[in-house]
Design brief:
- This protein is of the alpha+beta class.
- It has four domains: 2-37, no CATH class; 49-149, Nucleotidyltransferase, domain 5 (2-Layer Sandwich); 153-253, Orthogonal Bundle (Helix Hairpins); 260-375, Nop domain (Serum Albumin, Chain A, Domain 1, Orthogonal Bundle), CATH 1.10.246.
- It is built from 16 helices and eight strands.
- The strands form three sheets. Strands 7-6-5-8 form a four-stranded mixed β-sheet, covered by helices on one side. Strands 1-2 form a two-stranded antiparallel sheet. A two-stranded antiparallel sheet has the order 3-4.
- Strand 1 and strand 2 form a beta hairpin.
- Helix 2 packs across helix 4 (127-149), helix 5 runs antiparallel to helix 8 and helix 6 crosses helix 8 (225-259).
- The termini are far apart.
- 21% of the residues are buried.
């Protein structure tokens, strides 16, 4: 031990020469003074300057000089459990320093930061470290998947796409069944009774019963029993798809009213969920300008405008709102711009924790819609 300025003993510094028989009182005193000095990262050597760089991973931290030689090192000496490794990996992922890196950062306050991959002499993982790192990364991946799957944005996106696919399939199959019915029973008004045809067909046992349920005369067309069974099965699938769409839309409304309360009150939960899905989440939707929100869902028309010089789209999904769709063509553009700007504000209230909107705000916006219609 070496005495300091106050006469107390201090631990020897890593740079001190403690060889026996060579120490002198003056040398001891100088070493104590050096040990108390704050480390600096720029060392003047003649006309050259030695720059040190701080590098770390979850195992250790190092200080390298300009020649990529190890200048100082601190190794993690804690118990390497999976939970501890996960915490350290999370610190590195978020750009924070480990405890070892902070120690070296205090010693070398003017350091430069570098990635471990840039150094060829960075220590490789041994077998135990590889197993521990693999186990920790698997746990991180599992937690990330669970967290992502529980986000309302992702659930809404999947349900919106499922509804779109179901509607496409439903419309295609329904048209096939209706056209087949029109060939067998040409007296059926397929436009007026289109929704009734599927339910009647799925419940009927033969052609005469179907004609009676639809209120028309039966035909003398002879049908193969297998053909009747196949087409009735198709009609049952169409009805089942209708019920599936209704159930999905009910779930979408419940999630949207909770996840997007202000935007759902303004646009309706289904339209609010569509905009959220098109923007890939409420976070991105809240940061989009009103002009982009206005044309969400009209990407094809927008790129045709850029490539072929066609007229730019005035609205996308937002056109489905009755304030726009039931207005005259001259007033649709101004109403869409106004409604998109209000939708941007409502979405930001939902995402950033603002006060949820009430029917009072909706009534004021509806009043503005009426003013725009009156001017047009």
């Amino acid at each position: 031990m070496f005495p300091d300025e106050s006469g107390n003993e201090s631990a020897p510094h890593s740079g001190q020469n403690i060889g026996t028989g060579e120490s002198t009182p003056l040398l001891n005193y100088l070493l104590v003074i050096v040990a108390k000095l704050r480390f600096r990262t720029y060392f003047n050597i003649g006309i050259c300057t030695l720059v040190v760089r701080l590098v770390w991973d979850w195992r250790l931290a190092r200080i390298y000089d300009s020649q990529e030689q190890v200048f100082d090192e601190v190794v993690w000496d804690g118990h390497r459990t999976t939970a501890a490794i996960i915490v350290r990996l999370h610190e590195i992922q978020t750009g924070r320093m480990t405890a070892e890196a902070r120690i070296l950062a205090e010693r070398f306050p003017e350091h430069d930061l570098s990635e471990p991959i840039n150094f060829s002499n960075w220590p490789e993982l041994n077998i135990e470290e590889k197993k521990a790192l693999e186990k920790a990364t698997i746990c991180i991946a599992e937690k990330s998947i669970i967290r992502a799957s529980s986000e309302p944005d992702n659930r809404l996106d999947h349900m919106i796409r499922a509804v779109d696919d179901l509607r496409m399939t439903h419309n295609s199959l329904e048209s096939h069944v209706v056209e087949w019915i029109s060939l067998i029973l040409p007296w059926v008004d397929i436009d007026y009774k289109r929704s009734e045809i599927m339910h009647s067909f799925s419940k009927s046992s033969d052609l005469k019963e179907l004609a009676k349920m639809l209120g028309v005369e039966s035909s003398d067309v002879s049908l193969n029993q297998q053909e009747w069974i196949a087409m009735r099965s198709l009609a049952k699938n169409v009805v089942a798809q209708e019920l599936a769409v209704d159930d999905l839309e009910k779930s979408i409304r419940e999630i949207a009213n909770t996840h997007l309360p202000s935007l759902s009150l303004l646009l309706g939960p289904l339209l609010a969920a569509k905009l959220c899905s098109a923007a890939h989440g409420i976070g991105r939707l809240a940061r989009l300008p009103a002009g982009t929100i206005q044309v969400l869902g009209a990407e094809k028309a927008f790129f045709m405008h850029l490539r072929q010089g066609t007229d730019p789209p005035k609205h996308g999904y937002i056109f489905q709102h009755p304030w726009i769709s039931k207005s005259s063509k001259r007033s649709r553009g101004p109403i869409a711009r106004m409604l998109a700007s209000k939708a941007a504000i409502a979405c930001r209230c939902d995402y950033f924790g603002g006060k949820p909107w009430t029917t009072k705000e909706i009534a004021e916006i509806e009043k503005k819609v009426g003013e725009i219609r009156s001017r047009r």
